[in-house]
Inverse folding.
């Protein structure tokens, strides 16, 4: 299978590239390194330094651990780059991770909000048009997020909802109430992709992914230079990663508000497994298929309890602090999101067992001297408006 | 009331400005004249030449027909223009017509599609942030379109839908399946505005407008230089206007496909009445209110029959031609869209009676020598992809 990974320098993009290369697929990656620039804007570094993509590709290709990875450097908002890329590569599958990925980043103010929507929506539109021109039969696997749905008081279906209303029925896109300008950019993308499938007969799978945690995959563990980024900061860090770092450096776990916010979670290994299943079981021509990509759901408060327990097992005294919520979100709500389509294709989840959390805690603890404690506390307020971050 | 009309040079913007000025309100208009440039790109002119906005404002202000209109020239995608405008004007109501308004325009290819979404979405985001900064209590009256909904097999409610699903209930945004990249830009806007209301407590009314027809309002008739644009072309012309021109020049009415497409329609006079009602009955703080703004619904085939009948009454032999549909849309479908909220506020509709259609036909017939027959036939194909118009 010839597969192109957009955003191949990222937390998920790089492990995905190695995963398919290890399986013998023909893998291309593309990136513009915008994420590394966005990190610089907020003074943020991942826990361990990440070699350049060039260096990682060279290292992988020298290891004989699978097929080689080829790389291209360019920006999806430059349509000539996208057209040339698809013409040259001719992919059968395109995995699109190449977007601004952070809700807090998008809420720093007008500049960041507009950049996020422009970057993500225009990049995705360029991709749709370039596919329609150069590889109309290719399968687009697009990364979305569970945060597009918000927290409705009804069960969240996988993208489409069968509605009965006034005695008539239809199958409609699941109505969304996204949680940030970033999440909204993904909602806009999904609407644009559904239209491309409907009007041009394209095939696409939208993966509405939960909160990803985890450090290692089978391939990142092969060599230190093959590692992927681990963010624990207030902009790009996800909640479990942040809690583990807080536990290790001996500061309270920062729960935003009451902690009743319930979300879907998955291990980074399962991200790779889900993308693999989507890629090897493509959508039909004209089909806009949506999977909810997570394996279990917890409240943030429950997650904090799990980290406290893991800390206790490791001999750490871990406490929890409830901060004023910097976000505008329901802190207690109904949440029941369906996620059967990927298991139906064969997903075997890696759940958040004590063993998994203990292993993550131990790995972070080895690097505790590298933690920058000043980049953890939330600094971006959802209600702030056009300048909502201290350095903006 | 201090009211700012964005897109004040347009078909609806200019009559709206005069309407409020005639009522004694303090009216400001802003425009960047992008629409006139888009017309040039496709070699399109309105039936009668339209004086510059400067000239029309000067004419209006010299007529003592109401309060003066003040104008500003600038682009909503330039956020500094928007911030300065709102700071200087301090409006109580903002009526936002300032977007690329044509579905066919947006379907000419990648360049037009991306420009449409970038222009509309970024302009609207800049407006939201500037309002949040300079006039957070102002009421945003945003023009959307019924084309955002598509043609669902269930009744179309006014923006929000009460859903029961698996024994639980919620009130959700009505699910949308828009008909073009233009319509999608309005869907994106609506999601962004709903978020701004939810997170910042803004107040907004989204007017999902049907297809507008009509030439005159009470104010445009006061002087030839106060007229508004009348488009009958394949890009900016709406269907009834086009049919009337075709009837007058003796060519068949061009129905796309079978003609079973049903849409909501309204007279331009009712657009002004609806915007007036929305502006004088503002949404609550934090409320995202949605009205379906049309007065009656017809199929395109039925509309053609009405123009044939009007032609017969006027002594014209009018025929109908069914063209291959350049759009991708259902040609036979269920369509029942609610539209009670504006009548509940007091709207007295101007329906498409024989007298109204005969008057429009007579007005167009006086200008029959000005018609350019080469700009009427559809030239933009929905399924065409990245270059879907002959001059792109």
């Amino acid at each position: 299978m010839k597969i192109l990974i957009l955003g191949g320098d990222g937390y998920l993009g790089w492990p995905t590239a190695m995963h398919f290369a290890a399986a013998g697929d023909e893998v291309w990656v593309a990136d513009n390194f915008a994420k590394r620039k966005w990190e610089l804007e907020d003074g943020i570094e991942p826990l361990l330094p990440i070699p350049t993509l060039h260096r990682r590709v060279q290292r992988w290709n020298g290891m004989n651990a699978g097929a080689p990875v080829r790389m291209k450097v360019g920006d999806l908002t430059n349509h000539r780059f996208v057209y040339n890329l698809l013409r040259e590569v001719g992919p059968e599958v395109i995995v699109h991770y190449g977007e601004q990925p952070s809700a807090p980043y998008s809420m720093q103010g007008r500049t960041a909000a507009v950049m996020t929507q422009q970057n993500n929506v225009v990049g995705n539109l360029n991709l749709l048009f370039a596919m329609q021109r150069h590889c109309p039969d290719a399968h687009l696997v697009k990364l979305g997020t569970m945060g597009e749905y918000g927290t409705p008081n009804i069960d969240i279906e996988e993208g489409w909802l069968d509605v009965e209303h006034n005695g008539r029925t239809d199958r409609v896109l699941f109505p969304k109430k996204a949680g940030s300008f970033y999440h909204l950019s993904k909602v806009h993308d999904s609407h644009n992709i559904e239209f491309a499938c409907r009007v041009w007969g394209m095939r696409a799978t939208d993966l509405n992914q939960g909160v990803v945690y985890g450090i290692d995959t089978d391939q990142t563990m092969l060599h230190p230079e093959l590692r992927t980024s681990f963010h624990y900061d207030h902009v790009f860090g996800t909640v479990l990663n942040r809690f583990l770092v807080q536990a290790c450096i001996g500061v309270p776990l920062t729960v935003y508000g009451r902690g009743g916010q319930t979300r879907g979670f998955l291990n980074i290994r399962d991200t790779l497994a889900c993308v693999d299943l989507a890629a090897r079981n493509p959508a039909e021509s004209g089909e806009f298929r949506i999977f909810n990509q997570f394996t279990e759901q917890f409240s943030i408060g429950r997650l904090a309890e799990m980290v406290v327990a893991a800390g206790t097992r490791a001999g750490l005294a871990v406490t929890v602090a409830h901060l004023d919520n910097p976000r505008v979100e329901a802190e207690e709500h109904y949440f029941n999101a369906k996620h059967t389509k990927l298991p139906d294709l064969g997903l075997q989840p890696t759940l958040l067992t004590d063993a998994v959390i203990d292993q993550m805690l131990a790995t972070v603890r080895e690097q505790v001297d590298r933690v920058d404690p000043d980049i953890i506390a939330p600094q971006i307020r959802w209600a702030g408006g056009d300048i909502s971050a201290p350095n903006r």
